[in-house]
Structures are given as C-alpha cells and as structure tokens.
Amino acid sequence: MASVIVDSGGVTPVGTASLHTGAYAGTPPVSRTNGSAGDGAAPSFKRERFKKVDLTGERIGKLTVLYETSERKHRKVVWHCKCDCGNEVDVIGACLISRHTTSCGCFHKERLVERNIKHGMSRRGETCPLYKVWQSMLNRCRNSNTSHYHCYGGRGIKVCDEWLEFIPFRNWAMVNGYQDGLEIDRVDVDGNYEPSNCRWVTHQRNSRNRRDNVRIEWQGEYWVLCDLADKYGIKYKVLYDRIFRYHWGIERALTQPVRAVYKAA
Fold first, then answer.
1. Largest distance between two CA atoms of the chain
2. Cα angle value 165/167/173 (rounded, 5°)
3. H-helix segments, the chain
4. pTM above 0.70, yes or no
5. In percent, how much of the chain has pLDDT > 90?
6. Which of 65, 104, 172, 229 could pair with 239 as two cysteines, CB 3.0-4.6 Å apart?
C-alpha cells in the first residue's frame, strides 16, 4: 500500500520503504524547479542526470588514459590506458576516478618484491643469505646484547649511514662480487663497515683477517701464522707449538722436519 508525504506545497506519493530510508523509492535524485512552500504554487521536479567524465589524456598513478573503448563492464565505461612500464590495459572508469586502479599491476609486484627484500624473505619464506649477512653486521655493531658486540660496536666499529638500509647494501654487494657462501671482510680490522673498507672473501680467508690472529715478523715481513704454515707446508698447530710452547726460533720452527708423531696426528 502506498503512502503519501504531505507538505504545504502538495501531496507526493512514495513507496512504503521510503518512510524508513528517507528516500523516494524507485526514483532518481530530483530538484525543485519552480514554486515554493511560501507562494502556494505546486512545485514541479526534474530528473538530475549524471554527466560522463572524459578521462582522455588524464594521468592517474602510473596510468595514462588513451581513449574510451566500446566495451562495457557492469554497464560501466571502460578506458584503454598505458602504464609507465609499457604495458597497456583496459580499466573501468569508476576504478580510475576512485584511484582504485593506478597501474597495470606492476606497482603491486614492485611493492611485493620490495617488501620481501626489506624483510629478507624469499618466495619460499626463507631468509635470503645476503640479508642474514647484513643483519648480522648491524647486530655486531649496534646491538649490545649480541655475544660479539664487545669486538665490534664495543670497540667503536660502526656501520656507515648508507648501509643502515638493506637496499643500498644489496646494490653494493651485487656489483662487488657477492656470491652465496662468501663473507664480508674489512680490509682494516679497526675500520668501519663501509664500501671503501669491505670486500667479499671465503670463510677461510676471512678467518685469517681476524683481529686475534697471531702475526709474526719473518724475513722483513709480517705474516699471519696460518699463512706462514701454509707456505712451508706445516700444520698450524705444529708451528704454533714450536714457536710459543717450545720457544723455538722461527727459522728452526719452519725448516726442521716434522716428526712422525705430528704427521700421524
């Protein structure tokens, strides 16, 4: 059963549902064109029509609107657009106006990759090795709760400002010989972690650049003891014991043949 709304300007039939929603059921927005409640004249109404927006040439996010297509999706206009990445895509006009769609999909992919890199996650959910290297480097120098902080941050070793973010560190690593399995090494063990003082080396090489390595002078040069042992074909423990336990001279320690007991060991 229909109901009516009565005012001083006339009687207007409306649907029952309209009494609850406050809208005229089944009719578009209307506006009063003449007459008013004060002059006693019956008002007349006209339908308000929505104007179609021409998006040609508009730039929305990464998309540039080229032209309107003949296609309609859900009775809505579809526009052909070109993305900054070079792809072309058809997008519903309402999605462009609301900025729900601002790229061909490449922006979402870029953000996903950036987020994965930022958090050190690969597609399989595993932490990438390079991210672990970066994180360990920061912890050694900035986290006083780590076990080796006293050897790094506690001695004043710092990470340069550029490498406080992972992306610049990753970019430097990629153009300076990084491979999985390599370790970051400081040329000057008392210097900071920065591009001019760092390189990628094997674990064996990195262990020889430790601050607590034993160094001795031999024939006018300073040697890491393990390098000298390799040069003369002697086990590191044998050479160390000869020099520091038995107090042999360096020449004798390097040249005297090793007894069978050592070879067996």
1. 126
2. 110
3. 18-21, 93-97, 106-118, 129-142, 166-174, 203-207, 225-232, 236-240, 250-255, 260-264
4. no
5. 26
6. 229
